[in-house]
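Letters spell out the chain; backbone shape is given numerically. Both lines appear below:
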Amino acid sequence: MKYPMTKQGAEALEVELKHLKSVVRPQLSQSIAEARELGDLKENAEYHAAREQQGMVEARIRDIEGRLGNAQVIDVTSIPATGKVIFGTTVTIANVDTDEEVVYQIVGEDEADIKQGKLSVTSPIARALIGKHEGDVAAVQTPSGVVEYEVVEVQHL
């Protein structure tokens, strides 16, 4: 099964993967080699720490490769803007009751970071917004009840 991912999200993972493979992995190999030279491996804390870190790095490399392998990369800038909310768009919404505006980019689950305004496509707000057009109102079920948001602007950034 393919999972949607923005072009920026895929590029960030590729940069991290390259760094892990070309910088971190060789450094760890060197640390392990140096620790081995210190002698008895049973009581060699440096060796065990380096091996443990190597295991975590290798797991992260496999994780990133898996995510990229299962990603359907979507470059929203190559899709004509129609004012419709789709995956990857940046959406300005206004709370109908308070007029408070917020801006979110709708991204894949792995990329979501609410502090950066990146909203998971599987979140209740994103699910309510997908398919709406500028001027439409989306009702979002929240723990404190239904909140209505008007779609103010949809951008393909």
